[in-house]
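Format notes (please read before filing issues)

Several people have asked whether sequences and structure tokens are stored in separate files. They are not. Every record keeps both together, in the order shown below: the sequence lines, then the token lines. Line labels are part of the format and must not be stripped during preprocessing.
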Amino acid sequence: MNKLMIPLLALVAGCTMPYRPALLTEPGQFPGLIDFAAQSASKRADVIVVHGMCTHDASWAAETVDILAQQLGANAGTSPGPGLRAALGGVEVIPESVKTPAGELRFKALLWSPLTTPLKQQLCYDQTSKSGICTAAPPFTPKRAKLNARVKDWLVDDCFPDALIYQGVARDQIRAAMRDAILQATSDADPAAPLVVIAESLGSKILFDTLLEMTEQPDTRSTAMQTVNRIAYLIMGANQIPLLSLADQPLYDGTLAASASGDSLQKLLQKRAPSDKQRRAPQRLTLVAFTDPNDVLTYTLLKARYAAEGVAVHNVLVSNAPTWFGLIEMPDRAHVDYLVNPDVGRMISCGEPKSALCK
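Then the structure lines:
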């Protein structure tokens, strides 16, 4: 054997993706986007997409829709446009329609990242390799190890600040902007059409917190409850709610469990339940959480917290990037590459097992 082949084979042997193909933690099945479009009377489903932490721009919306459209046998061919801005400095609502062989999917992507960009730019001086929002910053001259620099630039200087900003004094402003975006995105909704929500990372918490707050305010309660009750399919990637919800809880005082009050997702699911036999039960909800176990920022969903009458919970384990020698999977790829993972895109679009409606 060629001596050069030995280290190459060792390198290949040391590269594994233990959860590709993806693995359901418990036996089960769930539908996909195409099934919801096909089964509705109008042959139409609405889809709200919310990104997670780290800087995003309008191209994220186009790329997300294109990835899902490819799995559906449709060709969206989207290009980022100006979208619809709910208010100056607010969350951008970017619409796109995808016609599949089984029906139409009306996407509304909610882009909130620009809200936090001006604050995050205060850290640009520290980035070793300048990101798109930091190109005007002076170079960082101290020497950093390459992996440390990659983690510091991406995780600490660009992504973590989003969570800190939201959990701080800007929280009410971000929720107000998200509320306006939700009202804009649902203003032309078909009440009979199912609603699909695809939310990642911090975006899930911002969305659920805002919807919960809207259900408790007289001027938005009706719209918010109609939206919550229409959700038929909730997809979560890079779920951080178990971690981020700690900031909403007081210290344990020895009398009540710290999580007794529940997080915003739990409370929204509880609100869906009819309070009496005369009320119409809300649309059945399928909740699917995609988790890469090597994603240090992500948690699976505890079924005991979220499963309820009319709510089915599925945890799916995935590998977003290779694991090297059982030691490390690149943290950035583990956290941000959910939708480009072919297993995730297929399952979201076509369900599990794959729907016969998908080519």
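For reference, the curators noted about this record: Residues 24-350 form one domain. DSSP finds 13 helices and eleven strands in the chain.
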